[in-house]
Specification:
Blueprint: E1 14-15, E2 19-22, H1 29-38, H2 40-43, H3 59-74, E3 79-85, E4 93-103, E5 109-116, H4 125-140, E6 145-150, H5 155-163, E7 167-178, E8 181-191, H6 198-211
Parallel strand pairs: 5-6
Antiparallel strand pairs: 1-2, 2-3, 3-4, 4-5, 6-8, 7-8
Bound molecules: coenzyme A.
Coenzyme A binds at residues 43, 46, 114-116, 121-127, 150, 154-157, 159-160, 163.
C-alpha cells in the first residue's frame, strides 16, 4: 500500500552527481524566463500551446506559476522541480522535472514530465534527473505508481523511460493538445514493485554485459 499525504519542506533538494533538483523560488523568475526564451523552438513541438491570450513568459504569469507550484508542493498536490547543473561558477537552471496530480487513496499515482535545455542534451542529464525523481516518488513520497505519456516519435524520451523499467501500457488517441494539435501518446507506467534503484540497475546491466 502507498502512504498518506506527507509534508516536505520547500528547502528540500535532490542532489545527483552532475545535476540537482529543487523547488522553484520567486527569485528564479528571471533565470527561468531566459531559459524558456532560449528554448522556445526546442520545446514547442513537445509542449502544450499557451492558454488563450496569456503569455506564459510574462513576469506576471511566471510569478503566478511559481507561486502556484510552491503552494501545490506544500499541499502534496504536485512537486515541480527545477533542474540545476553543478558547475564551478554556481548552479544555473537547465531544465525542469514535474510530478503532477498526486493522487492518494487507493491509486497512489503521480504523472511525470521533464525537459532539458537544448544545449545540455545527450549527456545523460535528463536520465539522471528522472532517476532522482523516481527515488523521490517511491522512497520519499511513498507513492505506488508513476505514469508518463510520450508522443511515439519522441525517441529520447521513450528511451529514458524504457531504460528505467517503465512498461508501455498502450496508445491513448488524441491524448494531449501539443502545439495546438491533439496528439496520440504512448502511456507508460511504473509501479514501486518494478522500480529498480540506479545502483542496483547498474549492477544488473554489468552482469548482463558480462554474460554476453
Ligand atoms: C527528451 C529529453 C528530456 C532528453 O534529454 P537528454 O538529457 O538528451 O537525455 P539523455 O542524455 O539522458 O538520453 C536518454 C537516452 O536517450 C538517447 N537519446 C538522446 N537523444 C536522442 C535522440 N535524439 N534520438 C534517439 N535517442 C536519443 C540517449 O542516447 C540515451 O540513451 P541511453 O540511456 O541508452 O544512453 C530532451 O531531449 C528534451 O528536453 N526534449 C524536449 C522536451 C521533451 O520531449 N520532453 C519529454 C516529453 S514526454
Amino acid at each position: 500500500m502507498g502512504g498518506d499525504a506527507i509534508s516536505i519542506p520547500l528547502s528540500f533538494q535532490l542532489t545527483g552527481a552532475r545535476i540537482g533538483l529543487r523547488p522553484p523560488r520567486a527569485t528564479d523568475i528571471g533565470g527561468l524566463r531566459s531559459l524558456l526564451r532560449a528554448n522556445a523552438d526546442h520545446l514547442r513541438p513537445w509542449s502544450p500551446a499557451p492558454a488563450n491570450g496569456l503569455d506564459p513568459l510574462s513576469l506576471t504569469e511566471l510569478s503566478r506559476s511559481i507561486a502556484r507550484q510552491r503552494s501545490d508542493w506544500k499541499r502534496d498536490v504536485a512537486y515541480v522541480f527545477l533542474m540545476v547543473a553543478h558547475t564551478e561558477r554556481g548552479e544555473p537552471l537547465i531544465g525542469r522535472v514535474a510530478l503532477t496530480s498526486v493522487t492518494r487513496g487507493p491509486f497512489q499515482n503521480v504523472y511525470l514530465g521533464y525537459w532539458i535545455d537544448g544545449g545540455h542534451q545527450r549527456r545523460g542529464l535528463a536520465s539522471e534527473a528522472v532517476d532522482l525523481a523516481l527515488a523521490f516518488v517511491f522512497g520519499t513520497l511513498r507513492l505506488h505508481r508513476v505514469q508518463a505519456a510520450v508522443m511515439p516519435h519522441n525517441d529520447a524520451s521513450r528511451r529514458i523511460l524504457a531504460r528505467r523499467g517503465f512498461r508501455e501500457e498502450g496508445i491513448a488517441r488524441r491524448y494531449l493538445c501539443i502545439a495546438g494539435q491533439w496528439e496520440d501518446h504512448i502511456l507508460y507506467g511504473l509501479t514501486g514493485e518494478e522500480w529498480c534503484e540506479p545502483a542496483a540497475r547498474a549492477s544488473v546491466d554489468a552482469q548482463e554485459e558480462a554474460a554476453r
